[in-house]
Amino acid sequence: MNTNRGISAHGNGNTISNNAVGDHARVIAPPTTERISAPVAGSATPADADPWDIGIVTILSEELRSLCDEFKLERHKEPGGLYFYRGEQVTPDSTVRIVATQTQSQGQRSTMAALENLRRHYRPRLWALVGVGGGIHDEHARIGNVIVSTEVVYYENRKINPLGDVRRRGEHRQAPAQVVHAVNAFFTEHGTPSRIHGQLASHSSQEYEVYPGPIGSGEAVVADRDSDIRQYLSQYNEKVLAVDMEAGGLSQYWQENSVHDETNPGWIVIRGVSDNADEEKGHAHHELAARNAAHVLRLLLPFLC
Predict the structure, then answer these.
(1) Which long-range CB contacts under 8 A does 46-53 form with residues at least 24 apart?
(2) pLDDT digits (tens, 9 = 90+) for 123-172
(3) For tag attachment on the chain, is the N or C end more exposed, with fewer CB atoms within 10 Å?
């Protein structure tokens, strides 16, 4: 009886692998190697990718549009549906990579979610909250002026006693020392206040003023000159110049983010004064304030980066 103990192949281009021939032959396959895919464009930034220089959070469309115009940012959509606006700005010392995003809504919680999205995808070295705010200091915080803040007073924590007595408990946070030094250097060279020509065509012949100072932050829209919030802030620190609804979330996120192994970015708040947190509060000066704030960020870049 004829026994075939070989391998027969016909034609060209045959490939034979993982085969054994002979009595008691067996195949020992090599360990399976997992396929490592390259990162998908736009996916969360891998750990070894270079961080971006500045990650900016905005709330209003006027704020983001002002930044896009000032820095020539271009829209970028991530595969998951998130939108970011990215670009570069050349300074005397470096080329600064900038990425901006807009929150889904006003307030501290949405701000913290936007910061997390920026961290996951771009890992910026500096957080910036840029846009409009309400001025509460008659001398410094006039409409169109810009407040540069490295101090945030969060005023929402409070105790409500019987008979409606409310005792507020402020939280005060300051930006890292290197950011404070950078802001100090800016005002040393530009003066305090700094006087800059308006960025809207209708205000180009007028100057606005830029001041450093603390900002109050909470969940309330303040539209009352006699508000207890304004009174509390003036008593807590008479140098508080403006209020917003997001800076507290930024400073809180920065503090909680410090537990990560990576370097914790610095932060800064730049608020153009669009109203005086009183009965006349409205939307009429949003674009003026937002454009002035975006321009001040550009002037600050050589000091911050």
Answers:
(1) 49/123, 51/122, 51/123, 51/124, 51/125, 52/86, 52/97, 52/98, 52/99, 52/122, 52/123, 52/124, 52/125, 53/96, 53/97, 53/98, 53/124, 53/125, 53/126, 53/305
(2) 999 999 999 999 998 889 899 999 999 999 999 888 888 877 888 888 99
(3) N
Asked if residue 204 lies in contact with residue 218, where contact means CB atoms within 8 angstroms, the answer is: no
CATH number for the domain including 153?
A: 3.40.50.1580
Q: Is residue 272 assigned to a domain?
A: yes
Angstrom distance (rounded) from CA 51 to CA 63: 24
Q: How far is CA 283 from the centre of its chain?
A: 23
Helix (H, G, I), strand (E, B) or coil at 208: strand
Classify residue 9: in a domain, yes or no: no
* pLDDT confidence tier of residue 41, bands split at 50, 70 and 90: very low
